[in-house]
Write a structure and sequence with these properties.
It contains 18 helices and eight strands. With 363 residues, it is α+β, with helices and mostly antiparallel strands. It folds into two domains: 241 residues, no CATH class; 99 residues, Homeodomain-like (Arc Repressor Mutant, subunit A). The strands form two sheets. The protein has a four-stranded mixed β-sheet with strand order 2-1-4-3. Strands 5-6-8-7 form a four-stranded antiparallel β-sheet.
Length: 363
């Protein structure tokens, strides 16, 4: 069962764009996370020795913005803050630690809906259905297999490519946070049967056993945590049918509004970023997402004053800046990832964007 939806924000929206030092109104950022999720990370890192001011500075936001639930942080703002948190705390398992204190409040209206759900399985399905109201950086979805239920947590491919360590941290935080939220919702302590993760096995896995009570299987094809089906059918302590109907109705109405006001160009841009894996998707790849033809897609973009080429160039610019932070990749490898047939073409494009060459940018 996989359901994907839009976001809930009834207030005025402010976006934190990639590579900015302040937040501007009416930005076209298409991949974001709500500020309560960022706040949870910043304050969790601060409890372990990180400085709030420095974390915010490295993320390109102010400490005051942390208290504004209507602020949305873009992908690179999110990654910069998480990278700083890992570095300043010197704790490679920071995500697991923060998850141990994460509550449904972090998820806003979705958390309230989970708290009023009839049982744990329904609460997790509600998270699956409405997660896009709090972030477009990763998906949650559930799958029932016989007498088991698997909860998947998948950061978008672009995140895994740009900042694999923070993508991993987000998955660890999500799994640890799930166990804490389960305890809050049901009053029961549940541990998973098993866990799978895409990422390499670290040398020391004791933190997983301490927090999750299970050592994950690493290097797998997906990130998921598996529970007994009978366990996730436990009732939720705060079940309230009236509130469930109210929160669901509010979320559905806001999703409908979001779909009406979002530009097609922004949808295309997000599709390009979400489907970036080993290489940048081409026009022929993106049209399948919208079940349309290249000509129709280009016409709709032209009506909004842009083109697929312009969107692709903008995405290449953003991805290039992020990928150049990864010292494990050469300039040539980054060029090919971004779809350039020749590294020299990438170097010329990068100089046009930034006024410098890739090697100089890498320092």
């Amino acid at each position: 069962m996989v359901q994907k939806s839009g976001r809930f924000l009834s207030r005025q929206v402010v976006f934190c764009d990639i590579k900015v030092t302040s937040c501007d109104m009416d930005s076209s950022a298409s991949l974001w996370v709500t500020m309560p999720i960022i706040r949870n990370i910043v304050y969790g890192a601060a409890e372990r020795g990180a400085d709030v001011q420095q974390l915010c500075r490295e993320g390109g936001i102010t400490p005051e913005m942390l208290e504004k639930d209507e602020v949305l942080a873009g992908l690179e703002v999110n990654c910069n803050i998480m990278e700083a948190a890992l570095r300043l705390t010197k704790d490679p398992f920071l995500g697991l630690r923060i998850g141990q204190a994460t509550s449904p409040v972090v998820l806003g209206m979705v958390g309230l809906l989970m708290e009023s759900s009839p049982n744990l399985q329904t609460a997790l399905v509600n998270l699956e259905q409405y997660v896009r109201t709090v972030t477009k950086l990763y998906d949650f979805y559930t799958e029932v297999r016989g007498e088991e239920l698997a909860l998947y947590c998948e950061p978008i491919p672009a995140w895994n490519s740009l900042s694999p360590e923070t993508a991993r941290m987000s998955v660890e935080l999500s799994f640890s946070g799930t166990l804490h939220i389960v305890r809050m919702l049901t009053g029961k302590t549940l541990y998973p049967l098993r866990i799978s993760m895409r990422y390499p096995r670290p040398r020391d896995t004791r933190a997983y056993l301490q927090v999750l009570k299970v050592e994950p299987s690493f290097g797998q094809s997906s990130n998921h945590i598996v529970f007994r089906l009978k366990d996730v059918r436990l009732p939720v302590i705060g079940h309230n049918p009236t509130l469930t109907a109210l929160f669901r109705d509010l979320l559905e109405k806001e999703i409908a509004k979001t779909r009406q006001r979002e530009s097609f160009a922004n949808e295309v841009r997000r599709a390009v970023l979400q489907n970036f894996d080993t290489t940048l998707p081409q026009l022929t790849d993106v049209v399948t997402v919208f079940n349309t033809s290249p000509r129709t897609l280009q016409r709709k973009l032209k009506d909004e004053g842009t083109s697929f080429q312009e969107i692709a160039e903008s995405v290449k610019h953003e991805l290039a800046l992020g990928l150049l932070k990864d010292s494990s990749l050469t300039v040539n490898e980054i060029a090919y990832k971004l779809g350039y047939a020749e590294p020299s073409v990438f170097r010329r494009a990068f100089k046009k964007w930034t006024g410098t060459n890739p090697k100089a940018y890498m320092g």
